[in-house]
Amino acid sequence: MRAVRCVVGSYGAVMDDTECNAATRPTDTQDCEVAQCSSSHPVPPRIKVSSTQGHRTQWRFGSWTQCSASCGKGTRMRYVSCRDNQGGVAEETACAHLPKPPAREVCSVVACGQWKVLEWTAVRKPPSS
């Protein structure tokens, strides 16, 4: 027998088993002979404005979408477009002199639980009658 626990984070905080994927849970028992068992080891919207060569263009962007993962790393996206001084959509080249805000980024909601197993322990054989 061995202990199998659901742990989260770099410090290995023990969580309820429901926080880990039950389908991937390692076994806590194994069949073995009496001789010896083997051991298995949201940013608010911003606007960047520039006025060069008589042009007044800016990058506009919306709110981030929800993270694509419910735990661990995922991605989130947002709409980013170059706009002219009338608020109309302009060619991206008109905003080339400004750094373009990212339209996609990596996100992490909460750490995913992982299974942690301890060493196997010996089980005493019941006395025979």
TrEMBL record:
Coiled coil: none annotated. GO terms for molecular function: metallopeptidase activity. Its main location: secreted. The keyword Protease applies. Keywords: Hydrolase, Metalloprotease, Protease, Secreted. It is found in: Secreted. InterPro entries: ADAMTS_ADAMTS-like (IPR050439), TSP1_rpt (IPR000884), TSP1_rpt_sf (IPR036383). Pfam families: TSP1_ADAMTS. PANTHER family: A DISINTEGRIN AND METALLOPROTEINASE WITH THROMBOSPONDIN MOTIFS 20, ADAMTS A DISINTEGRIN AND METALLOPROTEASE WITH THROMBOSPONDIN MOTIFS PROTEASE. This is A disintegrin and metalloproteinase with thrombospondin motifs 9. It comes from Xenoophorus captivus. The gene is ADAMTS9_2.
